Structure formats: C-alpha cells, structure tokens
Automatic annotation (TrEMBL):
Pfam families (alphabetical): SBP_bac_1
Signal is among the record's keywords: yes
Keyword set, alphabetical order: Signal
Gene3D superfamilies noted in UniProt: Periplasmic binding protein-like II
Compositional bias per record (Polar residues), positions renumbered to this chain: 27-37
Name of the featured protein: ABC transporter substrate-binding protein
Region called Disordered, residue ranges: 27-54
Amino acid sequence: MKRKRIASSILSMVMLMTFTLAGCSSNNDSASPSGTGNEPAPTPAPNQPAAEEKHDPVTLKFISWKNGTYDELYDLFHQKYPWITIEQVPVTNSQPIMEIIASLEAAGTPADVTEIDSDLITFEQNNLIEDLTPYIEKSDIFKNAKFPDGFFETMMFNNKKLAVPMVDVPMWVLVNKDLLAKHGVDMPANDWSYDDFRNIAKQVTDPSAGEYGITTQPEIQMRLLSSKAIADGHAANHQYMNEDLTQSMLSTPDVMNDVKWFQELVTKDGSMQSNAAAEEGGNVTKDFINGKTAFAIGGDWVLPTLKEKATFDWDVLPFPKGKVSQPGYSIYGPLALLSGSKHKEEAFLWLSFQFTPEAQKWKIDQGANASVIDPELTSYYDQAPIWQGKNIEAVKIAQKNAKIQSGLTVPGWNDYNYNNILNDIIFGDRDINDIIPETETWNKKTQEVRATLKQ
C-alpha cells in the first residue's frame, strides 16, 4: 500500500510539471508578435506550401515565323509561368521584321520579343533591341547552364549580348542507304573523311539509271564546302571567315583549291550534276526525296518530309573529317528582347526558358540540337522518337562538333557575295578567278562599314 501511495505521488508531480511547462510554452507563444492575448499563435502545417506570389496577367507579343509549330512550347512556358501568355505575331509574305516592329509601335501595341531576319548590327544601331548582359547576369538559368564555345560571341557587338539562340538548327549529311547497297557500299562510319565522301559518290553514280552520288543543291557548297575549308585548316569560321570575323579567306590559294575540289565533283567525277544538266533531266537530282541521289545536306526542316514520304531507307552522318578536324554546321536563330517592350522582365523569362531542360528536350524532339551542354540532354537523344532507328551517334557528333554559321555581327555582311558566286562556279560555268576581285572588294568594304558604326 505504501508503494502505491508513493507511485501516485510521483505521477501527480509529473502531471503538475507537464501543465507548468505547457503554461510556460503558452506564455512564450503569446509574447511573440503573432500571438493574441494568452492564446498560442497558430503554426503552419508541416507540409503546407508557402503562398504563391501574385502576378498580374501579361501577354507577350512574339514576332516569329513559327506559325503553329511552336504552340506546344508556348504551352510548356505557360505551365511554368501561368500568368504569362505568348501571343505570336506571324511573319507573312516575307515582310521585314523591322516593318512589323514599327507598325506595332505606331499602333501603341509594341512587341516584346522577336526573331531576327537579318544581321544583328542593323537592329542594334537602330536601338531596337536590348543588351541582354544585365538580364543574363541575374538569371539563375544562365548561371547554372553550360553553353558551347561561341554561344554568346556570335551574337555580340560592342561588348553587348544582343540575342540568344531561339533554336540551334543542326545539319547532317543525308544518306540514301538503299542506293549505297545497290552498288555494294556499306553505310560509312561516323569518322569518315572527305575522300570517303568523294569516292563513294563516284562509286554509286550511274547516269544510265539517272542515279548520282550527290544531290544538286546549293547547300552542298554553302554548308559542306564551307566546312571542308575549316576541316582542312584553311579558314577559322564558316563562310571562309578568319578568326575574328574581320576578313574573308575565300580568295586565298588554299580555299580556292577547296572550291576546285568541289567543282570537280561536277566537271571531273560526274557524281554531281550541274544546274543545266539537272534541269535537262527534269530536276530529279535536285531533291534528295526523289531517291536518285546518295548524299545531300539536310537539317531539322527535312525530317518530317523524309519520315512521311521517303520510299527508301535513309539515315544521317556527321559532316566528314578533314586534315585537322571534323567540324559540323549549325545555324543559330537569334531571339532578341525589343527595347520598346512594356514587359521586359517577363519577356526575358521567355528568352531564358529556351534553355531549361523541358524546352531543350522539346526541341530535340523536333530534330534540333541541344543548346546546353548537359549529360542528361545528350542521353535524351537516345529517347527522342524522331531519331529511333537512325544513326543517333551521328546526331550527337554533329551537335558536339558544330561550328556556328557566321554573319550575324559582321559589318556589311549583306554585301558579301560568297554564296551566289560559288553557286555559279560549282553548278555553272563562271570563272573561278572571279572570286579574287569580289573578295578583295568586300574585305575593304567590311572595314569601311565597321569604321562608320557607332560604338
């Protein structure tokens, strides 16, 4: 009995201490700013999310050619930023972007973001686009992403970051595997050379069957000849430009020999038809989809047609390797923030969103390159439905080795006649020596234009 009284006494003391501590706790809570009187302040549930920040709805006007094709990406952006809606302002009938910007400004409904249809310098000199540097420096997306060499440099002028790539458009050598197999030729390896390209093209050419090694298309000289000059160490950049993009190397002896090499595909090898010969045959060899040529140059824009309409087994290869490297060819579509925008912070969110994992994966699904160096994105090429059953390693190599097309920040670029003159030489009968005075004239012109630009 005595033990029971002792245990009861101890229990009473414990309960008293518990109530005392609880009272102290209540008094402490009531002393906090959130307390009222002697009542404890309410505490949030452990897993209750913080209240979402309120935003006023914003509609961004985006000037773009991507009529209907990027609606899914607009939806992904809206899911991430529910208060922001993208309204595309379509570009129709080749109307210059500057005219669209001006008309919207005049109507009192200025655009916020635009793709660019010419050199960036013209937009910068007319004060139409923002310097993105301060926005990029504050952006966690840009701080945490790793970008390829030249990512910013190709869109900089006067130390200003004038744009970022809306999309990185890759290019590959398209291969008609059925035509190769018909002539006993296996699919080349990804480390193939320009000599391999030339020899195979000759081997599969059969004029009697209307079959040729190479498609008669401007891209062969515009993309592949330009890449060969870099691969052999004859130029530092595409379009035969030097390291700092101040002068063309097109008229140098080494690059002239590269031009002759491609010219001989028509005049000596017969593996590629001239424009006149192609037209005489009904232009069949001017389009890879016809199945009459083994090699062509293509980018993401050809994939839907090939998947839907090609009646032969096709695949892709990276551009061949040369004597010093194996560069590819990539086009950056500039995306710029307009100075007249009334929603600059929200507009920059649209720019920076392009480099998030979800946006990058969506673009890979469309056949574009990843613009961000990330093992997760590289692995995603293996999962992308568009590349299933194709040479995925070639796609990865093309992305890794890509050299970016020059011109966006080169003064006087529109006067540089490299493309027309090379088409006329390789697919026509123009004298190759015309390259020399044309190039010398432009090299002088670009320096003169540069001197007139405001800094």
